[in-house]
Design goal:
The protein has about 170 residues and is mainly alpha-helical. The protein contains ten helices and no strands. The chain is globular and about 50 Å long.
Length: about 170
């Protein structure tokens, strides 16, 4: 989230991390909410919120975020957005085949360090089954190919909107 907002400037990243360390209590987990509140990133319009909106099948919020990304391409590049969606649905698929609902076992299967990371996967599992997740991964791969100019010369945000529509119609 910090890299999306600041970029790869290590000195700026270090400054923002120091700011977080000063504002959060010792031993606190750094969550996207903590970053959004303390670094000044718009929580509503970032890839974490996009994942949360898609995981909950919240069409209105998803398209609001998409429109923000379209208007602010540097804040919402489609390559990052499609990557986080791919990660979400890959994790959903792994979770289905892990054949456990126990939090620790699922976190281990998904190689996650905190239960907070598991939140969106669990939400998505309520709205998407394994077959749908597999189909959505196929849609994301098609989007990736087409956004690179293979088989399409359309705007990447138009293609991304098409991807989101396919996900919701799956």
């Amino acid at each position: 989230m910090l890299v999306e907002h600041i970029g790869c400037d290590l000195s700026m990243l270090a400054k923002e991390i120091e700011k977080l360390k000063m504002t959060l209590p010792p031993g606190a987990v750094i969550t996207p909410e903590a970053v959004a509140d303390n670094v000044g990133i718009s929580k509503e319009y970032n890839n974490f919120e996009l994942v949360a909106a898609v995981a909950q099948r919240n069409k209105v919020k998803t398209f609001e975020i998409l429109n923000f990304f379209r208007a602010n391409p540097k804040k919402g590049p489609t390559v990052l957005a499609s990557t986080v969606l791919f990660n979400l649905f890959s994790n959903v698929l792994i979770a289905y085949y892990a054949r456990t609902s126990e939090e620790r076992a699922l976190m281990e299967a998904l190689r996650m360090k905190s239960s907070y990371q598991l939140k969106d996967v669990r939400k998505a599992m309520r709205f998407y089954n394994a077959t749908q997740s597999l189909k959505i991964i196929q849609f994301i791969r098609e989007f990736d190919t087409r956004s690179k100019g293979i088989g399409s010369n359309r705007n990447e945000y138009d293609l991304f909107e098409e991807l989101i529509t396919k996900i919701f119609n799956c």
